[in-house]
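Memo to structure team: turn this sequence into structure tokens by end of day. - J.P.
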Amino acid sequence: MMDFKDKTVFISGASSGIGAACAQVFAAHGARLILSARREERVRSLAAALPAATHVMQLDVRDQKQVQKKIDTLPAGWSAIDLLLNNAGLARGLSRLHEGDLNDWQEMIDTNVKGLLYVTRAIVPGMIARNNGHIINIGSIAGHEVYPNGNVYCATKHAVDALTRGLRLDLSGTPLRVSTVDPGLVETEFSLVRFHGDKQRAQNVYQGMQSLTAEDIADAVFYCASRPAHVQIAEIIILPTAQRSATVVDRKM
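Reply from structure team:
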């Protein structure tokens, strides 16, 4: 298992859910953490509770100039990033394509696709220069299957899958590793965000079944990250036992 003592891990979308759970796991294994998110107060609260050296970065991954500037101006001792976890992402809405909300589309595309690209573009050149690094993207079962009314969200996660595969090819000839962890139903703020704060509708997504937790995904992420340097976990699709595909879920009502 790879030793994370004094390794620097950059996590986007670290203020809650999978990002926060990953921060806790890497902190427990001695990593130094750069925690970025739009919600600065929440990520600072997380950082204060972790047994690790942390650098908090208020960051909107949709803003390319902000991403580049903040990564270029990291304090001394924080710029040599060993692991990039592209976790920032969201779903907005669940409607037929011809009835979709354009603002929802733009937010998903700007965050899930462009944001991942902006952060990756800013960090990977340094990894190449140091001849060391690992990029782990958080994808989704929606990057492998399209489900009714999921059109644009599924398209963004298919894009994440394609970008992951493309980056792995582009880094051929280097020791850099590229992985993706693609969850099914995980009970976090995901559905609450998708349904614009409708708590009852969000709860219904997970009703009658045991969903995955953010900690389950963090465990899979750490597994990818902690393999020996000659081992590259290309892809993990992780589902709750009750989920058989994007749309087939065993529910005990």
